[in-house]
Design a protein that fits this description.
It is a single chain. The chain has 85 residues and is of the alpha+beta class. 32% of the residues lie in helices and 11% in strands. It contains 2 helices and 3 strands; from the N terminus they run H-E-E-E-H. Strands 1-3-2 form a 3-stranded mixed sheet. A hairpin with a 2-residue loop joins strand 2 and strand 3. The longest helix has 16 residues. The protein is globular.
Length: 85
């Protein structure tokens, strides 16, 4: 039986001539994603290099983090599934 299809999508990326921190390039990346998709991104899961503001241009930024002690099983599974490779 083949494995189920992966639900993670890489929507876009932007190259820069200078070395910039990932959090500084985020507005450009989100604009590129909006242009390629035709609509704005509501929420995105980013790697730890995008440390910075939790919302940018109305997009919620989610980073991988360990589950909290007060999280129930559903919340832990949801976090794990959202940030897995």
């Amino acid at each position: 039986m083949p494995p189920p299809p992966v639900q993670h999508h890489f929507v876009g990326g932007v190259s820069h001539s200078q070395k910039l921190h990932n959090s500084k390039t985020l507005p450009e990346v989100l604009a590129h994603c909006q242009n390629s998709r035709g609509k704005a991104v509501k929420a995105g899961v980013f790697d730890r290099g995008y440390r910075g503001p939790k919302t940018v241009d109305g997009t919620q930024i989610m980073l991988p983090a360990p589950s909290l002690k007060r999280d129930n099983r559903y919340q832990r599974d949801k976090k794990r599934k959202r940030c897995q490779r």
